Structure formats: C-alpha cells, structure tokens
Amino acid sequence: MEDNIKFNVITHMKKEIKKGKIIISKDGPYFVSGNLPLEKETIITDEERLPCEWKKGKKYPEQETYALCRCGKSKNMPYCDGTHVTCGFKGTETADRRKYFEQVDSKTEGPELDLTDVESLCARARFCERKGSAWNLTENSDDPLAKKTAIEQACNCPSGRLVALDKETKKAYEPEFEESLSLVEDPEMGVSGPIWVKGRVQIKSSDGHSYEKRNRVTLCRCGQSGNKPFCDGSHIESGFDDGDETLK
Ligand code: FES
C-alpha cells in the first residue's frame, strides 16, 4: 500500500490555476465555491489497529457552490440545513493565524530528514503512530525504509500538523493533491472526522482573513473544536457521527 503513495517536492506552478474557495460564515456553515469535488475518505487500520492508509468512498454530485455544516447538527449531512440557528451554534475562530512555519513548536532533526510539528493542528488521524512513530523514523532516516515511511506518514497526516523536509534542500515532501474536499470517517474510533481540504484551497475567515493556503488542512465539522476553524480531534470525545454506513 505504502508504495502507491506519491509525493513530490512542492512546486509553485500549480498555485496559479487554483480556483476553489471556502468562506466561513459567522456561527454558520462553510460556503464552498469553485466546483470543488467532495467525497468520503475513510481511515483504514492495520492488524495493530493503527491507521495505515486512506480509502476513498462516496462521491457527492458536482455543484458550483454548496454549504457544508460546521455545527455538527444538520439533519442533511454533510450540508447545512439551517440547524445552526436553532441550536445556537457559536463558531468563533480562535486558531493561530500565522503561517505554518511560524507556528512550528518542535522540529525533529534526523540524518536525511527533518520533521516539523504544530501540535495544535492535530486532527488525531494517528498515521504517525505506526512503525515506532514518525519522530523516531525521522531520527533514523539514514535507513532508506525508515526515511520512506516517515515521509509517507507525514504525507498521510490530513491536517498538515506534520511536514517532512529534505535535510539538504529544506524542501517539503507533499502528496500530489488536486483542489478537493474529503469528509473523513474513522470507523476504528467509531466517529466521523473533519473536512480534509486538499490542494491549497483558499479559506477565508468570517471576518475576512485569508488563512495560509496549504496542501493539507482539516476543518472542524463536529462543532466542538477548541481551535476553530481547524479540527483539534474533539470529534472523538464528542462521538460525532454523520450517519456514515462504515460507523454502523
Ligand atoms: S452549520 Fe448549518 S446546520 Fe450545521
């Protein structure tokens, strides 16, 4: 499975053709525009019950614009049905607005790789836990298999909490993503997860701030994150369930 993961060093060429956008409404949904593809994506676990790969699922019909629920209470998931008004949802955005590399709170240095970490962005997808952890693998990155696995684990981190960097060039390894959105499902934990925003989609706050465009970020859709608009893993404690069949 791991052999199938493609990654490459970020190029700046692709930025020019981006067109999707997400505008966050105050105490309401995410307004998505630009015909962004939307599908389900499920965390698959190994024999030790640790996440090892992603599996794509249902694709939603193409739409130029749509509104995705942010309060976690819609009866028409994943779309907003107006329940955020009646449930009194407060969607105040409290996340750090600095760029990722200005927020880095730890950097693990290895012989061939470095691994940067912004823990507050953790969506608890847990891909970093296998094979002794992404941090230990980075420290042993003079071993080709350890290096490859560390890169794969960082690239599988949906929130972009972890970024693997080439030791010499300092460039980030990133998966090749088109602009798209995935609704995360986590059957091992019995919960639905965040919206995985891929491919440097522009995200604007409810007060007009443009968040840094990143290849991987996760937006809260259970309504419970303490780091809105980003996911902080609270969907696990709150038992968020969007009705996906993999959770039955
Ligand atoms: S944000 Fe509108 S129903 Fe959840």
Secondary structure blueprint with pairings:
Blueprint: E1 7-9, E2 21-24, E3 30-33, E4 38-45, E5 51-59, E6 65-68, H1 83-86, H2 100-103, E7 106-109, E8 113-117, H3 134-139, H4 144-156, E9 162-166, E10 173-175, E11 180-186, E12 191-198, E13 202-204, E14 216-219, H5 234-238
Parallel strand pairs: 2-13, 4-11
Antiparallel strand pairs: 1-10, 2-3, 3-6, 4-5, 7-8, 8-9, 11-12, 12-14
Bound molecules: FE2/S2 (inorganic) cluster (FES).
Q: Which features characterize this protein?
A:
alpha+beta, 2 domains, 29% strand, binds FE2/S2 (inorganic) cluster, 248 residues, 5 helices, 5-stranded mixed beta sheet
Listed once per kind, the bound small molecules are: FE2/S2 (inorganic) cluster
Instruction: Specify the number of helices.
Output: 5
Number of strands: 14
Order of the strands making up the biggest sheet: 5-4-11-12-14
Structural class: alpha+beta
Unreliable stretches covering 5 or more consecutive residues: 10-16
| Estimated helix fraction | 10-25%
Tell me what the structure shows:
The protein has 248 residues and is an alpha+beta fold. Helix content is 13%, strand content 29%. Strand 7 and strand 8 (113-117) form a beta hairpin. The longest helix has 13 residues, at 144-156. It is globular and about 55 Å long. The relative contact order is 0.20. The structure holds FE2/S2 (inorganic) cluster. Residues 28-29, 69-71, 73-74, 80-84 line the site of FE2/S2 (inorganic) cluster (FES).
